[in-house]
Description:
Two copies of one chain form a homodimer.
Chain A: H1 3-22, H2 53-64, H3 86-98, H4 109-125, E1 141-145, H5 148-170, H6 176-180, E2 183-188, H7 193-202, E3 205-209, H8 219-231, E4 235-242, H9 254-263, E5 267-271, E6 296-299, H10 301-304, E7 312-316, H11 319-324, H12 359-393, E8 398-400, E9 408-413, H13 417-430, E10 436-440, E11 443-449, H14 457-487
Parallel strand pairs in A: 2-3, 2-4, 4-5, 5-6
Antiparallel strand pairs in A: 1-7, 6-7, 8-9, 9-11, 10-11
Helix pairs in contact in A: 3-12, 4-12, 5-7, 8-9, 12-14, 13-14
Amino acid sequence: MDAAEFRKSGKQMVDYIADYLEKIDKRQVFPDVEPGYLRPLIPDCAPQDPESFDDVFKDIEKIIMPGVTHWHSPYFFAYFPAASSFPALLADMLCGGIGCVGFSWAASPACTELETVMMDWLGKMINLPEEFLAGKDGQGGGVIQGSASEATLISLLAARTKTIRLVQSEKPELTEADIMGRLVAYASDQAHSSVERAALIAGVKIKNVSSDDKFSVRGSALKKVLDEDKASGLIPFFFCATLGTTPSCSFDKLLELGPICNKENIWMHIDAAYAGSAFICPEFRHLLNGVEFADSFNFNPHKWLLVNFDCSAMWVKKRSDLIGAFKLEPLYLQHHHHESGLVTDYRHWQIPLGRRFRSLKLWFVLRMYGVRGLQEHIRKHIRLSHQFEDLVLQDERFEICAEVVLGLVCFRLKGSNELNKELLKSINEAKKIHLVPCHLREKFVLRFAICSRVVESTHVEFAWQHISQLATDLLKAWEQNHHQQHQQ
Amino acid sequence: MDAAEFRKSGKQMVDYIADYLEKIDKRQVFPDVEPGYLRPLIPDCAPQDPESFDDVFKDIEKIIMPGVTHWHSPYFFAYFPAASSFPALLADMLCGGIGCVGFSWAASPACTELETVMMDWLGKMINLPEEFLAGKDGQGGGVIQGSASEATLISLLAARTKTIRLVQSEKPELTEADIMGRLVAYASDQAHSSVERAALIAGVKIKNVSSDDKFSVRGSALKKVLDEDKASGLIPFFFCATLGTTPSCSFDKLLELGPICNKENIWMHIDAAYAGSAFICPEFRHLLNGVEFADSFNFNPHKWLLVNFDCSAMWVKKRSDLIGAFKLEPLYLQHHHHESGLVTDYRHWQIPLGRRFRSLKLWFVLRMYGVRGLQEHIRKHIRLSHQFEDLVLQDERFEICAEVVLGLVCFRLKGSNELNKELLKSINEAKKIHLVPCHLREKFVLRFAICSRVVESTHVEFAWQHISQLATDLLKAWEQNHHQQHQQ
Lengths: 488, 488
């Protein structure tokens, strides 16, 4: 395929994507396929000779689409949103076209520099303390990671290195293995599984800190476990606070936790993967209060800020902590400006070496929506979640299971977990909308997350009517069953 | 921006990318900018109100392009190739348009299943042993990682978990920390820095194994260090063999190393990041002989197989080893088909949770080039590297520093490292072509890597004439200096 053919097929693809997104509400949100559906539909091995674009293009509807879960459907209320917008798609096309690999400043200066400046823009939008910004000669700065998991891992690794060095300077008789065996990381019992995974990767212990009845970690709960662990000779070194937990969008109490971490020399990382985007609205910024105590902070514009996956925004107060954890400098990666101090080599800030020109997506989205456009998007979602909450509250058969702060509603039928599992099953088998569950303590709970860029009040209304009807049917069948069992 | 505007601006972007790539040889391969060039060119913060696509579009040439290193220019001979092709760009557009996040089977069945099947296609293209393929009920299988660094890290972590469990089952008195402190990973002294980094992340020791005079690790070298380490109570657990090292594209001797690793119960991972693509040509497949001894194997189609970054292909013989290293199952990620055995949840195979629909790129590229088209691409590059090698060999002032096997030529002026540093400096300051150096033992060496999809014999010829002329100028100046110093 040459440039001329690409002009033609590229435009065909642009129209296909526009059609797909424009009419996505007409597609069934969750696919009908069973595991293993795809293999029989395509050959066993790659063709020896080239096929035409038309052949491949036809197979998109035939082979791919029947197996796609449509994350951007206005009937998709599962997980958390995956961001998607036209400006981000345009930027990603450009990113692919340029196709540079920006692991160092010299490997493509624009790729590095736009990222530094965009992370400053974004940091200012959520009013991050100045220490987190790169500015002209700041010690902090931002970086685009692929995912919140990587941001958590990188910050935990930086904390591990920093602590090992500190302990060794105080107690030179201890080996690295001795210290590693005593390090403990902490996170809420509501924290995302990626935090536990980061500790597993780093080879250190991790402990859950109990959350309170609003699913928030309080200072007292952290202090209790720290005191116990220190008394038994362990070395607490890392706490991951969550703003907007995955199960219920609860918020750890930064203003209580931050001072404890600072006093105890514990690295505080804040994972605000979903909730972070809301902080661009002044009325939600208070949820971030206490970030001034943190060492690192992360949220995912690729969740809720209309920047397509992947774009996870991470900031640190001291870039030297990240870089110091890893810096390795083979000759083929050194360059002339290497020691200048004005240059950022982002490969020292992340797990992989290679990196795409992802800041283009931020640049396009922030400019083509403007701060106000993005605030509107966030506010619409939060308005819709409260609409759903109100509908649930008006129905006595149901209960709300956690405070609705942003775009997530946790709800259930009053009654057993079995009943609620049945309800979710009937919802997802009907495939008119798509939800996933969570556990809150012992309760099996349904999560209703406002996800799509194009979801409107009517879709929420439809979803509720549908759920409500399925509940009626279910309760009737349930009662009949119960009645029959009683008679037997 | 709505779908209608996207149709318009998307097509404009397609033309821009086609223009960019069609005329990339007219652009200076390496930019003129100094560090910090970009910040003064754009505002301090994001705009409050939306800007138009036209405003943003104009800034691409004004702000971005002056700072881009043009990786796809036929005058780019640095690092290793970054793949780029029109079919891959089309597939990436579609990937963005669908915008699903495929962390589990249910999150988008097509995303998971196409990946499994494409990895089988690709595995068959390089004639991987059947054990590495997923097939219908295989224990192995392939996964697309973001980078070779991640593949190395994941395999090292799987090996770490496996070894800790094994040692603990034999010696229950040992704690995990005790064992961690005694684990040792190994790689060639020529291995990529990401291997050392993986060990740093995992918190285990890593040792270099000395390579021979052809920069290859031999069985005897590995055996020597293993024997020493075992005698001193350490636990060897992981060896990363490299096929196609970054400095000189040398090959570790798999047929000697594999049996040792198998006998000693050491996980052998093969990193063939660059070289792997060449194994689709039967005449180069012998370089992969010995892969049958490996536990995991990785190469980067995003380097040399015309699939745009990121697409790093990794296979394992036992998927349970990868999954067992991490598996964590919160409720919101469980799904109906969870336990069926037919379902792959790729999030257990990788560091991040989220993942894009990257297998579309493989599907488009393999079909639209066909195996023969991709073989032609590889063979052209290798022909061109030998062309350059011949030119160097015809000039008595120069020497070839390592066997030219694939698309990389390591060469230098006979003489001091200082002289060669000066030569590289004059090449890169002239900015007609772009190269990076390496060290081979004590020698400072220039790396000439065939990179661009559109590089032809004339570009190689030009590059050599240019280097040769710069060498003439440099040697003259050098001699004059020497003469003057002699006279003083």
